[in-house]
Amino acid sequence: MKKNSEIHNNRIIFLLIFFLLLTLIIISRLFYIQVVKGQEYTKMALEQINRSEELISDRGIIYDRNGKKMAVNVSASTVFVNPGAFNDDSDRAKVISELAPLVEMDEGELYYRLSSGKRTKIKQWVERDVANRIIEKKLSGVEIVEGYRRFYPFGTMASHLLGFTNVDGVGQYGVEASYNSDLTGSAGRILKSSDAGNRQLPTGSREVFEADDGLSAVLTIDQGIQSVLEEETNRIIDEFKADGVQIIVQEVATGDILGMSSYPAFDSNSPTSAIDEAQALKWKNMTSEEIQNNWYSNWRNPLVNNIYEPGSTFKLITAAAAIEENTTNSDKQYYCTGYIRDIKNAPPLRCVSFAHPHGDITLRDALAKSCNPSFVYVNRELGRENFLKYIKAFGFGEKTGIDLPGEALGLIPNSSESISEIGLATMSYGHGLAVTPIQLINAVSAIGNNGVLMTPRIVKELVNSEGRVVRSMEISEKRQVISSETANKMLDMMGYVVENGTASRANSSIYRIGGKTGTANKVVENGYAEDQFVSSFVGLAPIDNPVISILVIVDNPKTQTYGSIVASPSAKNIIEYTLKLLGVKEKPRDSIDSNKDYVRVPDVTFHLIGEAGRIITDSDLKYTTEYVNITDDTIIISQNPKAGELVDRGSIIEFEIDLNNGTTKIVPNLLGKEINEIDDYLDKLGLEYEIEGEEEGVIVKMSPNYSSRIQAGEKIIFTLGEKSELQGQDTSDPSLVDGLLEVENTENRPINPPEKEETDEVNEDDEEINEENNAEDNEENEPSSNA
Hints:
The protein is 31% helix and 23% strand. The protein is α+β, with helices and mostly antiparallel strands and 787 residues long. Among the domains are: 2-36; 52-159 and 185-219, Penicillin-binding protein 2a (Domain 2), CATH 3.90.1310; 306-515, Beta-lactamase (3-Layer(aba) Sandwich), CATH 3.40.710.10; 603-751, Trypsin Inhibitor V, Chain A, CATH 3.30.10. Strands 2, 3, 4, 5, 10, 18 and 19 form a 7-stranded mixed β-sheet that branches. It has a 5-stranded antiparallel β-sheet with strand order 12-11-23-22-21, sandwiched between helices. Helix 13 packs across helix 19.
């Protein structure tokens, strides 16, 4: 009995010791948790119930100068999933199986995304109907957060200028990047206490810090002008099969950019998509890295980021510098033999009119006829130091300061000592140096702005959501480059170039335009491409008191190469539209100078060049063509100014010739004509036709369409119908106006304007055949690499 009692007591003691030790362990653990790790665990607990959610600020809108929205925000939904809200694995499985197809995601990928256990963004910017379908399913832990995405109402319009935003709303390229911090604003935040399912705790706190919306940007761009630029860009691409086109219009007095267009262009709403079908096909055989490099190429703004050789448009800079330094003047005589041969260890530099040298020629005519040798002489007189001084003064070799990212500097000589003899020669006409388009137009704008160089401006001001101006981007003068006297002399010569020289296709009947064309061999990896050109026109208007400048650059046109043909007409169209929009009063040709004598231009299309030349000279006019290889069988296929226009007596008519000597024809506009009216006419032109369908009525459809080029023997297909079917179509053609259908019997009478007495003005020798090729640059004038 005593033994059993001892055993019982021992057990009690053992249990007491055990519970004492257990209590000590628990107390120690509690001490460790509460004291040693107390702060850390408290923080972890608070983090589980206290959550912070970001409130995204509304990105500022981008407006054009008239308040049209160029970039806006549209509502967009983002899908989040919080795995902490799942009750069990069946909830997870249901979410994965039902959500994956709606967000276009593989189930395995979605499972992996949810494995972290944290609230996770699954897909950004889902369509509204998809968001509604997700909401209807009432899936555990699935949230739809309303936000916004960037939207560009005009798609590809001004995409290089505007740029775009990435999925996080950060500006990439263009204005979106330059003004990203201003447009973004400041994000807000919600601080709240919630359970694992992100539900607000009844006793928890909630604090909201509102977001500050971004500022909106008001551009200097005019959407109407921009649309015309892009229409002309597309027309040039279609007509001349060019690789690219860039156009800028600038207000000379302020430096404001009114329009900036570039092709190819990407869609700012979908910047990583191919720009066209051809690029999409190429991408199929590219690696992801190669495609990404293509994206970067698509997004570059060639007007600001790329450089090119300006060709003869740079003669304006050479002439302005020489006149300012008083080493030449507009009437100074030079002598063109067709070549420059006196540069040691260099090939002869040819004038574009080397086959018919200009001989004695003034600076004014050298600019109008784009005589390279004359400008070599001008630059020699100016000298290396002065030439480089004015290159820099006009802003070449430095950033213009335009408020767009990635502006290039260009390539100019480091010092006057580094300019070789051949370099001094070729740079006089824009070869052997490289500039950005924005540099060139800004320099020419200085000529139109009394010699004052401005800083180009894209953004006019920043405004808040109420429209109040928060910050204005001030108009900024950089420096006086040339005197106002020199600037006025340059304006006079630029007007002469358009009215009497290579830029005649830019001549307007309602505004007086001045400018200069350029055609330069394209720079490629190993030098200059013999069969690829950069054709351009730069100008000012109205030339008597310039309001705007314009630069049109055409990269590698295929069907024509000269700037006068591919760039000048578009420049004229854009100038006329822009000046009308800006309220600049028209000044029709008849009112430009009431003291001048006028002649109506005869129609010489489809004539042999000899006959055409006689008709033109008999009308007290002159003619020129940019083509060298002319024979007795050469046929005129187009002329500028067109037949019937009123021009100054002695004006130059520019011929476009049939390069195939009769094998190429231009289809005239025959819409609205009856077959019996035009049968003999087409026979004389050597054009054949067929009638498709009904054989009565007037011509309502043509294939190929009028103005198309066809080969000899190719037939025009006519569709006949009622005149009412032609409503809204252009049925005019300069060769088909009343009295001109009889091509061989056209009467060309010089006329005088009303109230003008006839004069005994002596004209130049009527027998002179002016076959000078007045193109801007000779593709064989390859500058030395050390220029």
